[in-house]
User: Fold FtsX-like permease family protein from Bifidobacterium catenulatum subsp. kashiwanohense.
Amino acid sequence: MAWAQIKHSPSRLLAVLLAVVLSAAMLVGTVVFQGTSTASMAAVMAAPLKPVDVIIDPDDADVKSLKPSWAEDVLTKARVSGKVKAMAPYYAATVTAYGMDARGTANVYSVSRDPSLRWFGLESGDWPRSADQIVISQDTAGKLGVRIGGTVTLKSSDGTKHVVTVSGINDVRFKPMTGTDYAIYADPAYFGDATPGELFVKLNDPSDIDSVAQRLTMAAQSDGVTAVAGVEMIRQTSAMMAGGSTQLTVIMAVFTIIALLCAMMVISSTYRTLIAQRTRNIAMLRLVGARRANIRSLVLSEALITAMAGTLVGALIGMGGGYAAMTVMGQAFGGFAANPLLLAGTLLLTVAATVLAAWATVRHATRIPPIQALDGAAQYEDGNDAKANDRTHNGSVPRIVFGAVCAIAGVALLWVGAAGFHMPIALVGGLVLALGLVLALPRLVAMLMPVVATVLSVCGLAGKLAAASLSANVRRAGGTITAVAFGISLISALSSAATTGTATINADLDYRYPVSAALYTPDNSTLSDKVLQHAREITDAQGSYPIRTIAIDHAPDGVKTTPRILDVIPDKAAVVFAKDDQWHAGEENGVPVALVHPRYMSTIGIKEGDTLTLTVAGVPVTVRAHASQLTESPKLAIIITDGQLAALPRADAIEPALKTSMIWFKAKPGIDRAKLAGQINRLAVADPNATVGGGIAESNDILNVLNMLLMLSYAMLAITVTISLTGLANQLALSVIERTNEISMLRALGTRRGVIRTEIVIEALTLTIIGTFVGLLVGLPLGIAGVKAQIGGMTSQFTTQLPWTQIGVLIPVILFAAFLAAAIPARNATRIQAAQGLTS
Assistant:
């Protein structure tokens, strides 16, 4: 009978099917994301280890304390040289790479001279054979603007530069997740006499791996190093990467579970309406002998069939869509991967949630008396229970009270989590608040619906008809509003969290790095004329300020904290980077005021306003110290302005020795820091001696991670809103079906199609507006509390900022979506003929 019902009216179950499909797709997509991303990261980390039989690893030992030949010494001591086919020391170093078109941070890895230990091949060119040759990927070559035979300058952290030639293009199809821009592969000779981090060993007979590893381990114990089989190291790497993606997976899982809750509300509302429409059919079954258990089985069987079909379709979409998304992101290089147990669990969860949502409506079906088969009375869920209206509201009071208690408890937990910077407590608070809303909001909306109806009545006939429809179906309207509110609250919470988080990160970086970005030479040599000429062309900086510098010959001993450089900045830069009138005054009692780092002042035992004597260009310089963090941007210095320099007794002896070795940039408010970083990096290409410093690099990394999380989260929340709007469209469509007689009578009395169409649209907009208002009211503070709990304890610069731009875009979009959701039900309503009510 359940299958007959589905075949007879499949369109009525479309909302249920779509909600199940989307929920299953999100759950399965999350599992695929977790599995595929973990496999990809493991593939990146483990790729160099695949051809390796045994790895000699310093483990916890300090590599710098070992001899450069430590790994080969272990082999000799273990007396296994006869079993070794090939070995290769493994090196890695971080450098700055300068190409023709760009510069960026790069990791340089050693590649074995023996082909049996190489883990990738070449697309073109040759393997590096000397210290001045490298191999790069096609992607890296394109970004740096070089080809085979072209040159790249690699500069290490100590300022040493290596000009290397691209000898080949490898077939690496991914970028290792190392936090750097490029991956470069070089001959071991590139690393000179550096100590290798590991030794890779290839054996003549792979069956000897265990015995050789045991002998190497025994020989290595005295040196504090270990020997591990290659397959074991790959397993450890994979396990480590499996834990690395846990946090992102948890965030996605939370969004997915909330989307599933929205789907359950849509499913429950739909089944409650379907049961109301089948009142006479169910009563007829009861009349001919069907027991309540039979009716219960009928409803649950229908839900189970729909759930299984929707889950199967959703699983296919989730697997295909999840893997396709990972491929587009360039993160599917480990191949498709998903935990079978998790996959099966998510499918069972979707089916169980659907059946559970239908179970909540079963009692309405089992309470239909057989007598209703005779009078054909429609039993709508909110009932025409006019007699029991007071009783219905009274029965709702305990649920409202309990929901309100949960909501208050959730808010309290959120406040405690935010105030104490405990994210787990805040997360529990958010879930308790969600439970409170699910319990209380539908009934609270039902109680307030008369007020809404009064407001709508001023909108003419269409408004009065909409008010009557909403009042007749208050519980269903409350469920629809709750579903919309959930979707909007999640989006607004994420938006406010992102906006507040970005504002806090920027405020913290501005505090710790007053200089947004700096371009400087580590050896204090003069920047190239080309760099100085084009510095003003950086469009995302509100200003660029050339800084003249000179080495300090002598300063009071501060050990490691002793400043070595005197920075002379333009007077106008003082207003931008150090807003302090005392320092801007320039002199105090005839002595120029200089900025000094507070840590250095503490080390040498001086306090604010004390004098400090330096020797610069052989000239003693006495200044009055003023504490400032600015002196650490980008390296420890003492800072004076051009005006203060002119006030020095022997300024003419210092002036000729000054060199413009630095440019400071101040970012414009609200700009994309990644874009600013790109502009400054392109400027730095003009001078291989230049290094980029300031807060731009750190902010770029943090905001890139934040943006990736936002894109994933917004994509998932879009599905949640789709489910909510599906429930809205379903509510309107079922309302039209239920009111066929009423609408046909209105048409017979002369009501125009436009009035009926407007009525449906007013219903949709009313439900959406109320849901959006509640969603914003809950979501905005929820997001701020969440981000404060997560990062509030990490900085004293927590900055609350509401996402006005996103809200300004969200409200019109959601209202337009509601208008679209009402389009098909409104069209169906206007097609009802006047005679239909007389012949039904």
Residues 376-394 have pLDDT under 50 and may be disordered. DSSP finds 28 helices and 21 strands in the chain. Residues 92-189 form a domain with the Barwin-like endoglucanases fold (CATH 2.40.40).
